[in-house]
Amino acid sequence: MEPLSGAAAAAAAAAGGGGASRPPSFASQTNALLRKNLIFQKRNRKATIRLIIVPIYLCVLLSVLQRVINNLLDKPKYKCGCMCVDVNGTGPCQNVCGIQYSTLDQAGSCPIPNPPEWPALLQVPHLEYRATQDSSESCRKSQSCPAAIPFTGANETLSTTVMQNMFTDSPLSNLSDNASISGILLGTDMPGTSTGFIEPAFISDVPIYVLQSECKSRNSVTLRTTIDAINVQKEIKCVQGLPLWRNSSRTINEETFKGYRKEKIGKGISEVAMAYDFQDSNEKRFNVLALYNSTYQNISYVPMPFGLLRVSRSLNAVSNAYLQFLQGQGSGIKMLLEFTKEMPKQATRLTIDFSSLIGPLFFEWVVALLFPLC
Ligand SMILES: *[C@@H]1O[C@H](CO)[C@@H](O)[C@H](O)[C@H]1NC(C)=O
Ligand SMILES: *[C@@H]1O[C@H](CO)[C@@H](O)[C@H](O)[C@H]1NC(C)=O
Ligand SMILES: *[C@@H]1O[C@H](CO)[C@@H](O)[C@H](O)[C@H]1NC(C)=O
Ligand SMILES: *[C@@H]1O[C@H](CO)[C@@H](O)[C@H](O)[C@H]1NC(C)=O
Ligand SMILES: *[C@@H]1O[C@H](CO)[C@@H](O)[C@H](O)[C@H]1NC(C)=O
Ligand SMILES: *[C@@H]1O[C@H](CO)[C@@H](O)[C@H](O)[C@H]1NC(C)=O
Ligand SMILES: *[C@@H]1O[C@H](CO)[C@@H](O)[C@H](O)[C@H]1NC(C)=O
For atom 4 of ligand 4, which residue has the closest CA? Predict the structure, then answer.
């Protein structure tokens, strides 16, 4: 180490002068550090100048680059599509912008004042990853593996009854016409996207599942319904929802941990749709924990938008089942989640902001290198 500079030594002496036992005050420590750094900068003048010039030079370069890129992005190709339409039927046309006049590239920047209402779905594991009970795995071959729903609670009778109430078992063929979607347990194996404007399960080709306690026929039906005045036709397949009693929350945790997909291929994976812990629920008190797989959130170290989790239907289904348990199933009293809907959105522009991308790196260069702490 270099010998201490005069100023720092003086500061250290001044700080230590008050008595060997008393630590130097914060102010004198800061003072000493600042002086040490200043002298350090004075001795390395060239390096310091370079240290300041390089970020400034880069800043200028980046801001020029940002302008150029943003100018390129400021083309109609990346803006909400517009068209001149005759709104009133008579007279000159008006320029109207909106999703209906946009290409796929343009749609992302359109305003959405009234987002569509989508039915809330359950997250069901992929067919080939579902937890199986029999070791022979025959259900995987016949593609009829049930979706396991482990549950636990202090009172097994009560928990089992509530779980059985979750399913409404009308035949699939009854679903096809004018079905009230919120009353049935619909699920999908597609992960959620980062916004709720579009439910990927409804626009993709994969079927939507309906969870029932028993699947009478393997066949699928086509569900016709209207979502926001748009007629939707969707293939619906039955999946058996299989409530599995477990004697403790710990057992559920261990089982789902063992069935996790990490570093396993095919056989060992056993994923569950959801799980419930009824804790100390009784006729007067409803105290449930709804467990879900949060991996679908896609949390990573790189800043990325989170995936939306499909938890609301799972919570609603168990609450509704408890209500049925209290009221008796014939009562017809229901508490159903009708739809989920994204917040309205303004028109946005596609821009690139370098400062938010590399701001921390610049801070590191300029501040931390100019004032090294040790
Ligand atoms: C169309 O009708 C609306 C109100 O009905 C009016 O404000 C608007 O000016 C009309 N536009 C044209 C092009 O006539
Ligand atoms: C469990 O719940 C059932 C149904 O509500 C009730 O009859 C029974 O007494 C409860 N058992 C205990 C141990 O609380
Ligand atoms: C299915 O629909 C038919 C005719 O609409 C009706 O008679 C029958 O009760 C329904 N079944 C169930 C289980 O809802
Ligand atoms: C379904 O709805 C349409 C229009 O709302 C109606 O014309 C039709 O009769 C309904 N079908 C049934 C089976 O209720
Ligand atoms: C819970 O179940 C597991 C496995 O099924 C068993 O090993 C354990 O002894 C049970 N615990 C209690 C308290 O019953
Ligand atoms: C949770 O979801 C992820 C992603 O689909 C999957 O890899 C993992 O096996 C699932 N875990 C359980 C316990 O279902
Ligand atoms: C999350 O990860 C899955 C699987 O890698 C992917 O299909 C999905 O699009 C991702 N979701 C988001 C919001 O990035």
Answer: 178
